[in-house]
Amino acid sequence: MHREPYVIIGNSVAAMGAVEGIRSVDADRPITIISNESHHTYSRPLISYLLGRKVGDDDMLYRPPDFYDKNNIRAWLGVEVIGVDPRAGTLETADGRTIGFENLLIATGGKPIVPPDVEGAEAPGVFAFTTWDDARRIQEYIEERQVESAVVVGGGLIGLKSMEGLVQLGIRTTIVELADRILGATFDDTASAMARRRLEQSGVTVLCGNTVTSVEGTEEGLKGVVLRDESRIECSLVIFAIGVRPSVDVVRGTDIEVDRGILVDERMRTSADGIYAAGDVAQADLLLGDGKLPIPVFPNAARQGRIAGVNMAGGEARWRGGIAMNAVEVLGLPTVSVGLTSPGDDQCEILSELNEEEEQYRKIVLRDDRVVGAIFIGDIDRAGIITGLVRERIDVSEFKDLLLTKEFGLLSLPREYRKHIVSGRGIVV
Amino acid sequence: MKRIVAREEYCVGCRLCEIHCLVQHSKSKKIIKAFREERDSVLPRLRVEESGCVSFALQCRHCEQASCIEACMTGAMHRAPETGAVLCDTDRCVGCWMCIMVCPLGAIRRGPDSHVASKCDLCIGEDYPVCVANCPNEAIALREEDEVNA
Ligand SMILES: Cc1cc2nc3c(=O)[nH]c(=O)nc-3n(C[C@H](O)[C@H](O)[C@H](O)COP(=O)(O)OP(=O)(O)OC[C@H]3O[C@@H](n4cnc5c(N)ncnc54)[C@H](O)[C@@H]3O)c2cc1C
Questions:
Q1: pTM of this prediction?
Q2: Among candidates A190, A179, A160, which has minimal Cα distance to A375?
């Protein structure tokens, strides 16, 4: 059987990272990309900007139109992979093809969690929000039905992003969050409260500790939702954004090890020879603490993809452990969160500074004299230095007192580390 | 191939580099106009850090493994194929600040008037970056690649 040297399932962040990784080692053997979405590779996080009409279709592309040609990629778009056979080294597509591979990367990302036990969740007017097509369908629905009010279920990142798109269209929006605060996974109480205030100032209603139990629709369309406390909200659009989980379907029934995601080692290898996984679908080592977990954020997907690609092509690259991090503007309020932001134990030391009037907040979480988490709201410009300290596990005991000062910068850092990052290879003039 | 290096032992903290950088990236490219009329809309792309008697000028290192490119969710942050410089395509940048979150040098800022990332572009089109050309003490210098790594 003919075997393709490199096959990638997926056409997004991890997949593009892998292409770049492969090409850094192997300049020419062909790469096959198979994706069930029919678009050229596009930026997933931009779908909220698209919804809010901040960017147009042309701006959605994550890599230029000639990227496939330039990299000798054959892209099969709109083709679903339904199974992988690790022993035979083949995969099968929904349209009945069997493809042999030497190296396979599974970069299938995540898929939205379907709300359990919500009556009427299949009604027209109820959407998920993770793909370009989702955004397009929502836009069409909004235009067709002249939607004026919407409910977003879930106050996490994707819930907030979809809310932002809706608000930009002038749609009255309510967020319903089960936990007692929004952005609970990445923010602490203070930061969540600041974000909430921003939302409320922009006319968004935030309901915490509550959820949608049923959706009321009629022939003419959606009428509203009923909440757990039996209250009712009128709306003609509902977006469920209660989380994503790794899309592991393609390896179901094989002996490839799966926990929450597909388990991978530090070179992004699964338990099967020649098969790799990267991005939101993968469950890889953590930077802080033991064990593995999927961390579905963009920078991790890009780096894991590249590492997988390098290794697939016979090079050598290793994953040093992932950490949750995000930069989100909450209706214009810049925020950055990294790592452990509200530790449950008392083994951590916390430095923080809050100025509520000016919407400025900075918090640094230390454990054993190392930064393990941080939140920046408002002035975020030098947050990256702190992220660097987290990633490099730098001992900060000598300059802890400087971390939150105005003057904090590279000069506050130990000379050795400073030299190391300042003289990193790369400036070419 | 040459690279920019910062030599903190030579930096006197005069901040001429910041001024030249600001003017270079202003619309008018004229110092008086830039400071009088454009002050709120343009920032220097590098910054001088100072603490006691130590100071140095810091701009993007155009890292070989650039975290900002990796974290950029639109593809705006990219490596220029001809020069290897890390550049932000401001038409495609939406100002999500992922790059700021991951730059270990803190060398990227939010643009002052436009919602895009602002960073060193190595003064495209000039023979030398203006910070290098105008540093009175050669504290910002261009060096051959192998000298730098030696
Ligand atoms: C609205 C929104 C906003 C976001 N904002 C941010 C943000 O600000 N910061 C951040 O860090 N992260 C953000 N994320 C998360 C980020 O987009 C993901 O971490 C990233 O896209 C993961 O990349 P990936 O390549 O692993 O998977 P994905 O981007 O999910 O791509 C998976 C690919 O696999 C394909 N695929 C899946 N199953 C199959 C199959 N069976 N057969 C064929 N093809 C298949 C899909 O078509 C797709 O091409 C956001 C996500 C969303 C939805």
A1: 0.95
A2: A190
